[in-house]
Amino acid sequence: MTAASGESQAPLSREAAQRATARIAAFREELEALEAAGLLRLDAETLERVRAFHDARLAQWRRDFDVDASLGARRLGWGMKVASFVAALALAAAVFFLCRRFWGHLPTAAQVTLLIAGSLGSTLTSLHFAARERYSYFAKLFGLVACVCFGLNIALLGRIFNLPPAPEFFLVLSLFAALLAYACEARLLLAAAVCCLTAWLGARTGTFWGIYWLGFGERPETFFPAALCLFALSLVPHRRLPDFPPSYRVWAALCLFLPMLLLSHWGGGSLLPFAARHIEWFYQIMGFLTAAAVVALGIRRDWPETAQCGVVFFSIFLYTKFFDWCWDWMPKYLFFFLVGLTALLVLIVLRRLRAARQEQAEAPT
Amino acid sequence: MKGILQKLGILRPDGSMSVRMRRTLWFTAAALLQIAACNGVILSRVAQNRAAPDAELALSGREFRTQSGLFEDSGRFVRLRYQYICTSEETQLWYNGLFHPWLDAGKLAELGYRNLDAPKEPPFPRYPDKKVWVVLELDGPAYARYVAHHEAFHARAAAALAAEAEPGEARNRALADLDEAEKYLRKAREEESRLVLIDAGMDAAALRRQYPNRTRYAILPGRVRLGISNDKDARGKITWRFDPKVNLEPNTVFVPLPFAETFAAIDRQNTKNVRLQLAVGSRLDPWVRDLRVE
Questions:
Q1: Could you identify which of A25, A83, A283, B188 might form a hypothetical disulfide with A263, taking C-beta atoms 3.0 to 4.6 angstroms apart as the criterion?
Q2: Which residue of A has its CA nearest to B127?
Q3: Is the Cα torsion angle A253, A256, A257, A258 positive or negative in sign?
Q4: Which residues of A touch B71 (CB under 8 A)?
Q5: Which residues face B293 on adjacent strands?
Q6: Residues 186-225, chain A, touching B (beta carbon < 8 A)
Q7: pLDDT band at A76, cuts 50/70/90?
Q8: Chain B residue whose CA is closest to A96
Q9: Is the dihedral of CA B255, B256, B257, B259 positive or negative?
Q10: pLDDT band at B68 (very low <50, low <70, confident <90, very high)
Q11: Given an 8 Å threshold on Cβ–Cβ distance, is B23 in contact with A276?
């Protein structure tokens, strides 16, 4: 991530280089507009120096990070991301089914050797492409394939040697996916790591409460420790991977709010020793309070994704309450009118908050 | 070497390594180390398990079924067939456990279900499943009691038929009862599994001390579930009771390649005249030591 105050440091990631490229393009456009309006005219020497400086940086970033220098290239870049994602999933599925198709026809020694070789080979292939930032799409693609290969490695060894299933499978897979995510700077692999970590923490929390580990999904509260853990991970400084902490915070919000939403309608799934109705009320109130607190935290700490998660879930809690209270007896046109009015009210509140923030930002220090 | 690393992009043309590349190398090295470590742990567990077997059971075709993989899965497995036996002579316990007479309140408390109040009416609390060790008995006292029960039933049916000398509805009923008793006795002696799930516990070593015969008793991982069922009496009154169930989990064992042909032959012909040597190791992980058609 470039320093917030200037461009003196070279970008340390592709995303940072892409943002810096966009800033240069915006600067050039604004400079043209100011010159056309007659408000600013740089002398030829300064203009030439600035242009040469920017051109050199753009050329270096294109060489090192394969950034998209124009709007058209950026649109193609989005297409490449989608194609890369589809290719990663398809290749991973192909490896999975290929393994299933032929593993039973091999002797045990060959099975073990091929499983380990598959994990090692795909990881080294991912490293080979990660070494060249220009081929980051391929690094991420093979990173996902490596995760599938490693998962198959562990799972099939378990089947071959008849080992009992254990939740630690998710822990080792999460750790592996996280290592590759940090190696390849891939948020897709980070998502895989987060999902596996959430599953392991949920299973272990469940066993702490005396639940068989495979049944952790039946108790939504087992996901709360994962929310705490992911939020804690987001607080770890990620100078070179600035996109990772927001991802951790979004997943933490999902692990917090989705169970709350479920328990606000299904108190019977709670671990708490109270009546289901009381538990539902508790989580309805907690849902509103927590969502509001998350919005406040996101605004205060300048975490836009956190604030947005809070707003989304506040709205969901609100509309589910409207549905519970009003749907059966209220005329439908009035119900949707009420929903629309509430949305307008939320919009007005957010506008006022935004205006207050802007005033604060513009106030002389 | 330097030239190769430069060609691979790990080193810059000037021979230095970027910060990003250093980070990538460290994380990838950690991932490779993790692959080695995880596989090492698994394979050492397997070696430890197979070095000192805990039990070895000689199963017939009655005690297992072949199971091939689904959706293009080329794996071969045997699924163990076992019974839960409860004869009518068993003591009717306070929750009337029809499948596991030994799974009484004391045993449930031992398995972690403490302070259970008898269920009165819904809604009921949900009781979590528990991971336990289960004991399988092969051709032992439980199976012998089961066969003896059917022999006694057969003897009673034969005596009832002998008592009905006159042709008529009563004699026809007695004949039908004897046919049924013969059918169940034949099934018990020749078709049904001799493998019976007789006990469960949290301490595998304690179970092994209680059941020391390693050619008759195998201790394997299982799961206990505590459900709730009801009975209705003649007046339609419903009484709720606990309905605990314990299962072997997992109950499939992989069949390695040397036995693939035998497996295929058994699968094709559905033959029961087979012998499976099932070994259970010191870590209580089972494996197929031998599989043959007799």
A1: A283
A2: A211
A3: positive
A4: 100
A5: B274
A6: 206, 209-215, 218
A7: low
A8: B73
A9: negative
A10: confident
A11: no
| A124/B32 Cβ within 8 A | yes
B112 three-class SS? coil
Q: Which residue of A has its CA nearest to B114?
A: A210
| The two three-digit tokens of residue A153, written as one number | 């490695």
Report which of residues A50 and A81 the model is more confident about: A50
Inspect the interface and report whether the beta carbons of B128 and A130 lie closer than 8 Å: no
Query: Inter-chain contact B287–A100, Cβ cutoff 8 Å?
Result: no
Q: Which of A103, A130, A215 sits opposite B74 (nearest CB)?
A: A103
- Do A211 and B128 count as a contact with CB atoms less than 8 A apart? yes
Structure tokens that stand for B139 in this block: 């051709």
Give me the residues of A, 39-78, that contact B with CB < 8 A.
Answer: none
Q: Measured between alpha carbons, how far is A118 from A102 in angstroms, rounded to an integer?
A: 14
Residues contacting A77, CB < 8 A, separation 6+ = A68
Give burial (CB, 10 Å; 0-12/13-18/19+) of B200.
buried
Does residue A164 belong to the interface with chain B, where contact is any CB pair within 8 Å? Answer: yes
Q: Which of B4, B32, B29, B6 minimizes the C-alpha distance to B17?
A: B6
What DSSP state is assigned to residue B201? E
Choosing among A161, A169, A170, which should be mutated to test the B contact, i.e. which has the most B CBs within 10 A?
A161
Give me the sign of the Cα torsion angle A78, A80, A86, A88.
negative
Separation between Cα atoms, residue A250 and residue A230, nearest integer Å:
9
Could you tell me if A322 and A339 are in contact, meaning their C-beta atoms sit under 8 angstroms apart? yes
Interface ipTM above 0.90: no
| Interatomic CA distance for residues A57 and A36, integer angstroms | 26
Instruction: State the sign of the Cα–Cα–Cα–Cα dihedral B2, B3, B7, B8.
Output: negative
Residues pairing with B132 in the sheet: B222
Distance between A72 CA and the closest CA of chain B, angstroms: 28
A115-136 per-residue burial string, b: 16 or more CB within 10 A, e: under 16: bbebbbebbebbbbbbbbbebb
Residue of B nearest to A108 (CA): B256
Nearest Cα residue to A321 out of A309, A338, A308: A338
CA-wise closest residue to B228 among B132, B130, B127, B129: B127
Task: Give one word for A64, left, alpha or beta, with left for phi > 0 and alpha for psi -120 to 50.
Answer: alpha
Q: How far apart are CA A235 and CA B134, in angstroms?
A: 46
Name the pairing type of β-strands B252-254 and B76-80.
antiparallel
pTM (predicted TM-score): 0.82
Kindly determine whether residue A159 and residue B287, on different chains, have CB atoms separated by under 8 Å.
no
Give me the pLDDT at residue B83, please: 83
Asked if A153's CB is within 8 angstroms of B39's CB, the reply is yes
pLDDT in tens, A289-333: 999 999 999 988 989 899 999 999 998 998 888 888 888 888 888
B224 to chain A, minimum CA–CA distance in Å?
A: 9
- For residue A131, what is the DSSP state? T
